[in-house]
Amino acid sequence: AQIAAELNKHWQRLLEGLSYYKPPSTTSAEKIKADKDVAAPLKELGLRVSKFLGLDEEQSVQLLQCYLQEDYRGTR
């Protein structure tokens, strides 16, 4: 009941957050492949993430870059 209440209270914000992400596109994939500033391993992983999650290729690479810069702490 509490979870349902919170979801109902914040549904608009949740919808906006989820709507931010776009579906994959060949245009986006080509931009990533042509981008010389993105390292080859990041491109490859970004394209795989895009396919796996059904997200835009550019957004997938951006998510990976943010994760690596902000959240990744290495293996322990």
Task: Describe it.
It is a single chain. By secondary structure, the chain is mainly alpha-helical. It has one domain. It has helices at 2-9, 11-19, 26-34, 40-53, 57-71.
In short:
The protein has helices spanning about 1-10, 10-20, 25-35, 40-55, 55-70. It has about 80 residues and is an all-alpha fold. α4 (about 40-55) packs across α5.
Features:
mainly alpha, extended, Nup188, NU188 protein, structural constituent of nuclear pore, 5 helices, 76 residues
Write the layout of secondary structure elements.
Blueprint: H1 2-9, H2 11-19, H3 26-34, H4 40-53, H5 57-71
Largest β-sheet summary: none
In percent, how helical is the residue content? over 70%
In DSSP terms (H or I, runs of 4 or more residues), the helix count works out at 5
So what's the overall shape? extended
Order of helices and strands: HHHHH
**In terms of structural class, how would the helical and strand content be classed?**
mainly alpha
Radius of gyration, Cα only, in angstroms? Answer: 16 Å
Mean pLDDT: 92
Number of strands: 0
CA distance, first residue to last residue: 38 Å
Task: Count the domains.
Answer: 1
GO molecular function, one term: structural constituent of nuclear pore
GO biological process, one term: protein import into nucleus
Organism: Burhinus bistriatus
Protein name: NU188 protein
